[in-house]
Amino acid sequence: MTEPSYLAAIRESYDTVADDYVNVAPARFAEDALGRGMLAAFAESVRANGGRPVADVGCGPGHVTVHLDSLGVSASGVDLSPRMVEIARRAYPALRFDVGSMTALDFPDGHLGGIVAWWSIFHLPPEALPVVFAEFHRTLAPGGLLLVGFHVGDGRLRPERAYGHPVSYDTHLLQPDDLGELLHRAGMVVTARLVEEPGGTRPQACLLARKPDPLQGYDHR
Predict the structure, then answer these.
(1) What digits encode the pLDDT tens for the residues 133-172?
(2) Whole-prediction pTM value?
(3) Residue 158's CB: how many other CB atoms inside 10 A?
(4) What structural domains and CATH numbers belong to the chain?
(5) Closest C-alpha among 19, 17, 13, 72 to residue 42
């Protein structure tokens, strides 16, 4: 099966920027108190729901994966970029990192207690998101949680450079209500959201969703 061109562009771009990205992204994450708060709530809920493994999908150099590990969940990372995975493995040898695509996750059905997609879906065209969310739903156990972080807005950006290097990916801005509807169609229930007010920079948002568990009475509405 031929790989979509957008996946090749994402892989090539992040392989190119990886060595400089690792000097920027972890520092930004360290300043994101609101985002870390959502991750803490996510981790607490995963632990309360049985503590199944968590996948950090689009993990980059692994800084969010190791943060999840520090919050008491069994976390591993998946990224499309082999160079990013190489950096993550070297930095955090005690954790597992694999090269893979969120469009076809290498996990059995119902295996995961949680998935984090931390600013990793916004390079995907909107028409690809139903496939990705179906994979998230497939691999989550009943009652499993999904936390998605993304940039708020409308339309598509086509940056020519990032982190000091040429890139060929697109950046897609998303509205929380639209993303929530896509999650609903994939069989997920959005349980919480965090949306920054518009300011000097592009607003960001997080959605927390759950795969319904009939035994616990979570319905799909």
Answers:
(1) 999 999 999 999 999 999 999 999 999 999 999 999 999 9
(2) 0.94
(3) 9
(4) 5-216 (3.40.50.150)
(5) 72
Rg (alpha carbons) of the chain, rounded to whole number: 16
Cα of 172 vs its chain's centroid, Å:
14
> Tokens 């972890």 correspond to what residue?
26
Distances from the Cα of 57 to the Cα of 75, 95, 178, angstroms: 10, 14, 21
Give the integer Cα–Cα distance in Å for 120 and 132. 11
Closest CA to 56 of 72, 40, 44, 67: 67
Contacts 24+ apart (CB under 8 A), 65-70: 65/92, 65/95, 65/97, 66/91, 66/92, 66/95, 67/29, 67/36, 67/39, 68/39, 68/43, 68/116, 69/95
Token digits of residue 67:
């943060």
